[in-house]
Amino acid sequence: MQLRHHEATTRTCRTEESSTLGLLLTPRPGAGRPWDTSTVRVHGDLEIPPEGLQIYSDVWNRAFADGDVVDHDPAEGPPAPAAG
Questions:
Q1: CA–CA gap between residue 41 and residue 9 (Å, rounded)
Q2: Beta bridge mates, 67
Q3: What is the rounded CA–CA span in Å between residue 23 and residue 70?
Q4: Burial 51-79, CB ≥16 within 10 A → b, else e
Q5: Is the Cβ–Cβ distance between 12 and 5 less than 8 Å?
Q6: Nearest CA among 19, 15, 38, 36 for reference residue 27
Q7: Which residues of the chain have a pLDDT value below 70?
Q8: pTM above 0.70, yes or no
Q9: Rounded distance, CA 49 to CA 63, Å?
C-alpha cells in the first residue's frame, strides 16, 4: 500500500494532501464472522528511502517486468481482450 500511495501521489503532485486507506480481509476459521478485517491509513510523504522503494517495486511491480500486465494510457481505456 505504501508503494501505491507513493506512486499515485508522485504522479499527481498532491503528496501532502493525499491519504490512502488499505483494507485487509483474512478468512476466519470456525463459526461466527467469516472474515477478520484490518485497516491502515497513510498520509502525505512517507519518506521511503530509494532502497526501500526499489525493494517494494521489485516485489509488487513484477508483473510489469514479466510481461504479464500491459500498461496503457488511462485516457485510452483498458486494452481490448485478446481474441480466442
A1: 14
A2: none
A3: 26
A4: eebeebeeeeeeeeeeeeeeeeeeeeeee
A5: no
A6: 36
A7: 63-84
A8: no
A9: 23
Cell reading at 34: 467469516
- Identify the residue whose cell numbers are 476466519: 28
Assess contact for 19 and 48: CB atoms under 8 A: no
Q: Give pLDDT, residue 19.
A: 95
Inter-axis angle of helices 2-12 and 50-60, to 10 degrees? Answer: 110
| Residue 1 per-residue DSSP state | -
- CA neighbor of 11 nearest in space, from 74, 58, 65: 74
Measured CA to CA in angstroms, residue 16 lies from 3, 7, 70 at distances of 16, 13, 30
Residue keyed to cell 521489485: 58
